[in-house]
C-alpha cells in the first residue's frame, strides 16, 4: 500500500483511492494512444496532466513499472516546497522553482491538499559563513523570491527558540507538503480528463512498426510500439519518458548517448523522537559550502508532525536501494566503472568518507546538528527513512545542474522526447517543469 503520513482524512482518502486506482488499471495492458508518457513519478504525472489539459482531443496513457504510482523519488521526498534561493540567477532551475512554488501553493489551495508555509532559516553559525549568506540573499532577490530578509541572532531565537546562530536568511514562503499526495492528485486530474494509467508496465523496448496492426484500417497512425519486460505492448504516435532513476537507460534504448549517466545517491535521515518535536518549528538549513556538491544536514518538519534530520549523501549500490546493504550488480558496475564517478570521488574523497561515517554513526550526525540546536542529543533521535536521488553526472565528474532533453536517431528518435535530467528541486518545480516539457513536446511533434 502507498504510505499515508497522517495529514488528514483528505490525504488518507486520496492515497487509498490512488492505490485502488493503480491496481484496477493494471489489468489494462494494451491499446493505442496519441501520446504515451513513461514514468509515474511527480514529473511524469505533472507532464501528463499538463498535456491532456492542453490537448483534450488527443488520447494519452501513462505507463508505470510499479503496481502503484509515485513509489520512488516522489514517495521518498523530504516534503519541502523550495522557494528558489540557491540557484544561479537567470537559470532554468531558478525560474522554474520560483514559478513552480507559486503554482504549487495555488494548486494545493484549489484542490484542498494540506500544506504549511512554515518558513525556512538558512543559519550562519560561523563568521566566515556570513559573506556566503549575504550572497544567497542577493541571489534570492535577483531570482524574485518574495519576502526574504537577513535577521540577527535575537530574531533567530524569536522564530526558532532552540536554534543558535549569528545571522540567518529568513524565507517565510518556504513550505512543506506531502509530495506523494500532490503527485497522486495530478494523476487523478489526468484520469478525470480521460487519461489512461497502466501500471505494472516496465518499458523495455521501443520500435517502429513495420506494418499496420492486424485488422486496423488506420495504417500506421500509431507507428511506435512500446514493449514491456513482461511482453505487453502499447502503440502510440509519440512518446515522452520521465524515467527518473532509469532515464539514461530508457534513452539508450532509442539510440541516445550513454551520457549523462544517472548515478544514484542515497540519503539517510534521522527522526526526532516525538517528545522532542518542540525543538523545531520550521525548516532550518546550513549555509551551503560551494566546495561540496550537496546542501548539508538540515531540520525538516513534516506534515504528520514529525521532524526529519539530515540527510547525508552516499553513493547507492542499487538505483532503488533504500537500505544500507541493498545491492544490484548491474547498478554497482554501471556506477563504479564510469569515469565521471571516479573523478567525482577523487575530488570529494574526504567529504564522501565523512558522509559515510556520519551515516553509520548517529552521534557524528547529531554533532553537526548541534551547531544549530545545542540542546539536541544522540538520545533524542531515531534512525529514519532513506531516499535515493537520481543525479545526472558527466564524464568529467560534474553534477549536471540543468535539464537535458534527448530523442535518439531516425524515425524512432523523431517521435520520442526523453527527459534525461530534471534536477532538484523537481517536486517544487513540477507544475512549471510540466509547462516547459509540454512546450518542448509541442514544438518537436507539432501537436
TrEMBL record:
Its EC number is 1.1.99.2. Pfam families: DAO. Its cofactor is FAD. SUPFAM superfamilies: FAD/NAD(P)-binding domain. GO terms for molecular function: (S)-2-hydroxyglutarate dehydrogenase activity. Residues 34-439 form the FAD dependent oxidoreductase domain. Gene3D superfamilies: D-Amino Acid Oxidase, subunit A, domain 2, FAD/NAD(P)-binding domain. NCBIfam families: PRK11728.1 (NF008726). Belongs to the L2HGDH family. This is L-2-hydroxyglutarate dehydrogenase, mitochondrial. The lineage of its organism: Eukaryota, Metazoa, Chordata, Craniata, Vertebrata. The gene is l2hgdh.
Amino acid at each position: 500500500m502507498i504510505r499515508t503520513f497522517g495529514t488528514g482524512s483528505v490525504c488518507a482518502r486520496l492515497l487509498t483511492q490512488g492505490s485502488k486506482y493503480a491496481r484496477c488499471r493494471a489489468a489494462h495492458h494494451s491499446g493505442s494512444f496519441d501520446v504515451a508518457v513513461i514514468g509515474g513519478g511527480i514529473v511524469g504525472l505533472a507532464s501528463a496532466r499538463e498535456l491532456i489539459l492542453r490537448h483534450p482531443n488527443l488520447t494519452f496513457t501513462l505507463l508505470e513499472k510499479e503496481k502503484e504510482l509515485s513509489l520512488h523519488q516522489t514517495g521518498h521526498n523530504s516534503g519541502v516546497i523550495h522557494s528558489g534561493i540557491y540557484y544561479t540567477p537567470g537559470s532554468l532551475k531558478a525560474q522554474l522553482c520560483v514559478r513552480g512554488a507559486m503554482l504549487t501553493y495555488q494548486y494545493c489551495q484549489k484542490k484542498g491538499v494540506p500544506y504549511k508555509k512554515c518558513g525556512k532559516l538558512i543559519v550562519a553559525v560561523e563568521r566566515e559563513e556570513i559573506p556566503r549568506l549575504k550572497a544567497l540573499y542577493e541571489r534570492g532577490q535577483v531570482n524574485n523570491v518574495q519576502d526574504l530578509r537577513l535577521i540577527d541572532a535575537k530574531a533567530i531565537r524569536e522564530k526558532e527558540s532552540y536554534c543558535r546562530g549569528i545571522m540567518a536568511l529568513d524565507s517565510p514562503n518556504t513550505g512543506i507538503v506531502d509530495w506523494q499526495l500532490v503527485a497522486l492528485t495530478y494523476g487523478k486530474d489526468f484520469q478525470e480528463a480521460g487519461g489512461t494509467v497502466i501500471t505494472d508496465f516496465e518499458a523495455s523496448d521501443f520500435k517502429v512498426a513495420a506494418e499496420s496492426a492486424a485488422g486496423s484500417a488506420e495504417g500506421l497512425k500509431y507507428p511506435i510500439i512500446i514493449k514491456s519486460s513482461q511482453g505487453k505492448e502499447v502503440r502510440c504516435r509519440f512518446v515522452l519518458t520521465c524515467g527518473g532513476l532509469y532515464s539514461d537507460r530508457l534513452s539508450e534504448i532509442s539510440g541516445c548517448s550513454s551520457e549523462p549517466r544517472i548515478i544514484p545517491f542515497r540519503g539517510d535521515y534521522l527522526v526526532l523522537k516525538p517528545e522532542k518535536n518542540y525543538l523545531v518549528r520550521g525548516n532550518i538549513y546550513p549555509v551551503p559550502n560551494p566546495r561540496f556538491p550537496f546542501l548539508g544536514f538540515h531540520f525538516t518538519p513534516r506534515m504528520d508532525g514529525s521532524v526529519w534530520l539530515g540527510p547525508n549523501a552516499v553513493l547507492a549500490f542499487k538505483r532503488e536501494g533504500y537500505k544500507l546493504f541493498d545491492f544490484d550488480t548491474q547498478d554497482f558496475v554501471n556506477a563504479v566503472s564510469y569515469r565521471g564517478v571516479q573523478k567525482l570521488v577523487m575530488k570529494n574523497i574526504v567529504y564522501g568518507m565523512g558522509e559515510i561515517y556520519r551515516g553509520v554513526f548517529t552521534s557524528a550526525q547529531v554533532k553537526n546538528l548541534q551547531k544549530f540546536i545545542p540542546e539536541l542529543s544522540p538520545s533524542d533521535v531515531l534512525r529514519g527513512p532513506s531516499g535515493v536521488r537520481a543525479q545526472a553526472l558527466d564524464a568529467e565528474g560534474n553534477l549536471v545542474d540543468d535539464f537535458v532533453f534527448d530523442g535518439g536517431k531516425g524515425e524512432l528518435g523523431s517521435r520520442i522526447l526523453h527527459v534525461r535530467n530534471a534536477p532538484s528541486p523537481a517536486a517544487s518545480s513540477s507544475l512549471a517543469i510540466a509547462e516547459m516539457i509540454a512546450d518542448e513536446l509541442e514544438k518537436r511533434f507539432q501537436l
